[in-house]
Design brief:
alpha/beta; Elongation Factor Tu (Ef-tu), domain 3; four-stranded antiparallel sheet; globular; binds flavin-adenine dinucleotide; binds FE2/S2 (inorganic) cluster
Length: 278
């Protein structure tokens, strides 16, 4: 029963939400934390954020995008199947306070890790404006949930199929131009998006937190795979993060390290296309 998939829902193009029986993790987890998960014994372990949980009912939820071999295998599982192994909760919880006026900006699957943070920020009494974006309407996730929790919600799509035609960074500029001011920002999404958006929020004097997504192998601080440089110091995203002060990130190093695995990942993806069972 433990690690069994209780519910499986297709949220958007190749994005899935799974509810998983995991009472111990459900009791302990806090916003910002993640699990290391191996769907079946023949795959790698991958980090996925705990998007939601219910301690009384003993379940956690993950939301993931199918991008390569392991997420393909994961998407092939069904209700009743058991996930091979799950470790967590891992990482530091998000530092939640009553900051005042907060802006949450999420891109792509990054909207999933942003959701529990938004819920905790609201519970702490913050006024929260949220901007979410995706490649197209078909790729947009959690709009209804984010709207319910946000004081104001804006949506952007790269192709203009829904909401603002353009990037979340354009919407942030428009919100600022309209006179809105913020005390804190939380930005989660693809690395380039976090780099660009946090440069804008920081330039406006807003304390900004980003959640980094380097390659993680063990998730326990032992392998060094998730090494990042923050304010000139070496940090391991799995044990020191995954959230960091955006003003100190060495973005070029992170981009370089992520690129170094690309050819291997592409080979694995091509070899295992047949595993994409939905
Ligand atoms: C703390 C953290 C939380 C995350 N939360 C989510 C989430 O909630 N939902 C979601 O869809 N994705 C999340 N990710 C990214 C997710 O881990 C990758 O999409 C996944 O590992 C891809 O594996 P793959 O074998 O399917 O794809 P691959 O083909 O192996 O890789 C595709 C891309 O995924 C990334 N990736 C691959 N392996 C790893 C790894 N071991 N660790 C980190 N990144 C990797 C790389 O950027 C790579 O280019 C998170 C990453 C981190 C570090
Ligand atoms: S994943 Fe190994 S040190 Fe962080």
């Amino acid at each position: 029963m433990s690690n069994a998939i209780l519910n499986k829902e297709n949220l958007a193009a190749s994005a899935w939400r799974y509810r998983i029986h995991s009472p111990k993790i459900a009791r302990k987890r806090q916003a910002g934390q993640f699990i290391m998960l191996r769907p079946v014994p023949e795959t790698e372990r991958i980090p996925l954020t705990i998007a939601n949980a219910d301690a009384e009912q003993g379940w956690i939820e993950i939301i993931f995008q199918v991008v390569g071999r392991t997420t393909m295998f994961l998407s092939g599982l069904d209700v009743g199947d058991e996930i091979s192994d799950i470790a967590g909760p891992l990482g530091h919880p998000t530092r939640i306070e009553k900051f005042g006026r907060v802006i949450c900006i999420g891109g792509g699957i990054g909207v999933a890790p942003l959701y529990p943070i938004l819920c905790s920020l609201k519970d702490a009494g913050n006024d929260v404006t949220t901007i979410i974006g995706a490649r197209s309407k078909a790729h947009l996730i959690l709009e209804k949930e984010m709207k319910e929790k946000s004081d104001k919600l804006f949506v952007a799509t790269d192709d203009g199929s829904y909401g603002h035609h353009g990037f979340v960074s354009d919407v942030f500029n428009q919100v600022q131009d309209a006179g809105d001011r913020f005390d804190s920002a939380f930005v989660i999404g693809p690395v380039m998006m976090m780099k660009v958006v946090s440069s804008l929020t920081l330039a406006s004097g807003i304390n900004t937190v980003v959640s980094l997504n380097p390659i993680m192998i063990d998730g326990t601080g032992m392998c060094g795979g998730c090494r990042v440089t923050v304010h000139g110091k070496t940090k391991f995203a799995c044990v020191d993060g995954p959230e960091f002060d955006a003003s100190g990130i060495d973005w070029e190093e992170l981009i370089r390290r992520l690129k170094s695995y690309q050819s291997f990942e592409e080979k694995e993806r091509n070899e295992h296309q047949c595993a994409l069972v939905q």
